[in-house]
Amino acid sequence: MPTTQQLTELTFTVAGRVARPCAEVYEAVADPAQLSRYFTTGGARGRLEAGADVSWDFHDFPGRFPVTVLEAVPPRRIVIQWTTERGPETTTDPSGTTRTTFEFEPIDGDTRTLVSITESSWQPTADGAAEAFGNCEGWTSMLNALKAWVEHGINLREGFYA
Fold this sequence. Notes:
Radius of gyration: 16 Å
Structural class: alpha+beta
Oligomer: single chain
CATH class: Alpha Beta
CATH superfamily: START domain
Strand order of the largest sheet: 1-7-6-5-4-3-2
Largest sheet: 7 strands, antiparallel
Number of domains: 1
Distance between the termini: 53 Å
């Protein structure tokens, strides 16, 4: 007979493959100039380095989002913490933040990279689920935009939101 566990937190992972080496794909996420070209439509301020406090701005969600870099291990892993739009009512962290982990795994002799993005710290409530689903959509869009940018120099988000 299966046991029932209490759900205490919502988390999700999205992943995709980019036809470039790990170091190049990692750099496209860590470098604010590149990130601003394909993802943060309102701009990124600050490099994703351990201990850094940076900010991201999006045309579809105006206003700066503060981002704290908890870990950066080039070219394999970046862990950030950032404040959600609705704050503590939707997250398990009392400060209203979630944790997002980017992992870059070399495949095919490092000619391609498997990029995985995991976000956690969402309340297992209707509001928490709605916020998590929205961010899941956003990170999936980011992966698509990352692939188009790194492989072809195309900004998929240009004109999409504004």
